[in-house]
Automatic annotation (TrEMBL):
The keyword Transcription does not apply. It is found in: Cell membrane. InterPro entries: ATPase_P-typ_cyto_dom_N, ATPase_P-typ_P_site, ATPase_P-typ_TM_dom_sf, ATPase_P-typ_transduc_dom_A_sf, ATPase_P-type_domA, Cation_Transport_ATPase_IB, HAD-like_sf, HAD_sf. Pfam families: E1-E2_ATPase, Hydrolase. Its EC number is 7.2.2.21. It catalyses: Cd(2+)(in) + ATP + H2O = Cd(2+)(out) + ADP + phosphate + H(+). Belongs to the cation transport ATPase (P-type) (TC 3.A.3) family. Type IB subfamily. Keywords: ATP-binding, Cadmium, Cell membrane, Membrane, Metal-binding, Nucleotide-binding, Translocase, Transmembrane, Transmembrane helix. This is Cd(2+)-exporting ATPase. It is an enzyme of class 7 (translocase). Coiled coil: none annotated. It comes from Faecalibacterium prausnitzii.
Length: 630
């Protein structure tokens, strides 16, 4: 509890003790009893009276404070001092309960706020580190991050190796190893070694700033359920106030005209009970709290939802469309197969290819060198020649080696085997003889198959992949992952056209989500009902255009996000039906004189506490996370 909550708790306890003492003491004359009971009432309820008076002054009287003030002051006027004190005490208990619940919901989002760095270390001419404001650091500046410090700005490691704690960004507890040449993002904690990093972005454009901006602005985009309750309360509260006024005076006047006793006191009591019952706290508090809890729970798992409206829409997703490269696949090439001819070993084939490709910076060449896994002695390589559209030729240890595609082998008048596997083929010839080939492919992410399976289990009707890759590659990835549909050889404009067709064919009240990471995905992310971006390695344009950001680039988190969204929406509608149902029944009973002020207290505070307790369930998503991992 914070100081304000502890203060309110003390006031509630003091008021309860004073009311209990007064109840046990013998009766006092009415004026004295009124004054004595006003003491505990003002101890706990002065803040409510002050807000009610302020609302009247601002010509916006119709809120829960006004309803409580009128009901409790009216109860005192009728001589029901204990009931008047009880109403205000239980109301403040409900408010305290709600405040604590909101505080707990904020904790996971507040932990994100802790990723904001206070300073950046810049090495001075004398070698000493100087702490400066991250906003003052320009692109290309070398900063020093010591063990235990948070990386303040995105950049590339120039010197050092370390393990980074990314839990605040991704929700993952395992540290990530980094070394010189690796890109790092702001917000991660440097765990072990000293790092020198060259900044690639200004602080305002770095990952940490974008995340904080997303979180801080998430409450601006309200769900339809929240907007409905806001509009409902604007009409509902004045209506029940005028209804209570009519209940207090119209029946007595009718009774008087009929020659019967008016019983103004009874009808005023009924009207006050009616006011307490009608207080819309349960709805006004629990529904935003439910969405806030859902967003907070998602953020703890590294899923940033830009607003409750997107959480609500995510729950109705029936079609999920994926980009391939960088989304379902790693986006980096890797040697996935080594096929030497008879008389040539796998090691010899890879060594010859790696040495021949040693001078090239092409992604295919880099993957071959990575497969070799040893330090390359370039003095062994001479007469290197790159042949555009064919490959590379060189002399390795005096032997002529050629690495390239089938056209290069045909140029050398060598016959190559028919290859049916999907991927890029690098054929190798040594001393004029065909030596074998390497299969290079963009590797599927470890959790991609689990992601598709999880989406099916979560109720997604159709999964689709859009890619600019060739048909064989797309077909192989689609079959491996179990996708329902795929479209290959697409340009960015073609992707938008495919999304339009899918939007036109989706079922009523069903949303289409697109998952992507690249700059060319931004138009599609904007066009889809829900745009989901890969945030850790994704482009800035994709993150800006998306409605949901996955901070660890794990596509399996999409199903988890949908489960969180559906549970949150379920909780919201449970609270709406429960609160309106109980209040509707109690309002009828109150108007008929069957419900007492104690019934009214349950209909207001009791319903609010139950609704808030139910709303806090949205924050706890451990069971959903375990189900998603299963």
């Amino acid at each position: 509890m914070n100081k304000k909550q502890k203060k309110m708790l003390k006031q509630i306890i003091a008021a309860v003790i004073l009311v209990a003492i007064l109840k046990l003491l013998p009766s006092f004359p009415t004026p004295v009893e009124l004054v004595l009971y006003y003491i505990p009432y003002l101890v706990v309820g002065w803040d409510v009276l002050r807000k009610a008076i302020k609302g009247i002054k601002n010509r916006q009287p119709f809120d829960e404070c006004f309803l409580m003030a009128v009901a409790t002051v009216g109860a005192f006027a009728l001589g029901d001092y204990v009931e008047g004190c009880a109403v205000i005490i239980f109301y403040q208990i409900g408010e305290l309960f709600q405040s604590v619940a909101v505080g707990k919901s904020r904790q996971s989002i507040s932990s994100l706020m802790d990723i904001r760095p206070d300073y950046a270390n810049i090495e001075g001419e004398d070698g000493k580190l100087e702490q400066v404001d991250p906003d003052e650091v320009e692109i290309g500046t070398t900063i020093v991050v010591q063990p235990g410090e948070r990386i303040p700005i995105d950049g590339v490691i120039l010197e050092g190796a370390s393990a980074l704690n990314t839990a605040a960004l991704t929700g993952e507890s395992l540290p990530r190893d980094v070394k010189a040449g690796d890109e790092v993002i702001s917000g991660c904690v440097n765990v072990t070694g000293l790092l020198k990093i060259q900044t690639t972005k200004e602080f305002g454009e770095s990952t940490v700033s974008k995340i904080l901006d997303l979180v801080e602005n998430s409450s601006m985009k309200k769900a339809r359920a929240e907007n409905f309750i806001t509009r409902f309360a604007r009409v509902y509260t004045p209506a029940v106030c005028y209804g209570a006024l009519a209940l207090a005076f119209l029946p007595p006047i009718v009774l008087l005209l009929m020659g019967q006793p008016a019983r103004f006191g009874d009808w005023i009591y009924r009207a006050l009970t009616f006011l307490v019952i009608s207080c819309p706290c349960a709805l006004v508090i629990s529904i935003p709290l439910s969405f806030f809890g859902g967003i907070g729970g998602a953020s703890a798992c590294g899923i940033l939802v830009k607003g409750s409206t997107y959480l609500e829409e995510l729950a109705r997703t029936g079609v999920v469309v994926f980009d391939k490269t960088g989304t379902l696949t790693q986006g980096t090439f890797k040697v996935t197969g080594i096929y030497p001819t008879e008389g040539t070993s796998q090691d010899a084939l890879v060594e010859a290819a790696a040495l021949t490709e040693s001078w090239s910076k092409h992604p295919i060449s880099l993957s071959v060198k990575a497969a070799y896994g040893k330090e390359i002695d370039q003095s062994r390589v001479t007469d290197v020649e790159e042949l555009g559209g064919y490959g590379v030729t060189a002399k390795v240890d005096g032997k002529a080696v050629a690495c390239g595609n089938a056209r290069l082998m045909a140029k050398l008048r060598l016959t190559v085997p028919a290859v049916t596997e999907a991927g890029t083929i690098v054929h190798v010839a040594i001393d004029g003889k065909y030596a074998g080939y390497l299969l290079i492919a963009d590797v599927v992410k470890p959790h991609s198959a689990q992601a598709i399976k999880g989406l099916k289990q979560a109720g997604v009707r159709k999964t689709v992949m859009l890619t600019g890759d060739a048909e064989p590659v797309a077909k192989a990835v689609s079959a491996e992952l179990g996708l329902d549909e795929y479209h290959a050889g697409l340009l960015p404009g073609d992707k938008v056209d495919q999304i339009e067709k899918l939007l036109a064919s989706k079922q009523p009240k069903e949303n289409l989500a697109f998952v992507g990471d690249g700059v060319n995905d931004a138009p599609v992310l904007s066009r889809a009902d829900i745009g989901i971006a890969m945030g850790a390695l994704g482009s800035d344009a994709a993150i800006e255009a998306a409605d949901v950001v996955l901070m660890d680039d794990d596509p399996a988190k999409i199903a988890l996000a949908m489960r969180i969204a559906r549970r949150t929406n379920g909780i919201v509608y449970q609270n709406i039906v429960f609160a309106l149902g109980v209040k509707g029944i109690c309002l009828i009973l109150g108007a008929l004189g069957i419900a007492s002020m104690w019934t009214a207290i349950f209909a207001d505070v009791g319903v609010m506490i139950i609704a808030v307790l139910n709303a806090t369930r949205a924050l706890y998503i451990k069971d959903l996370a375990k189900k998603n991992e299963a």
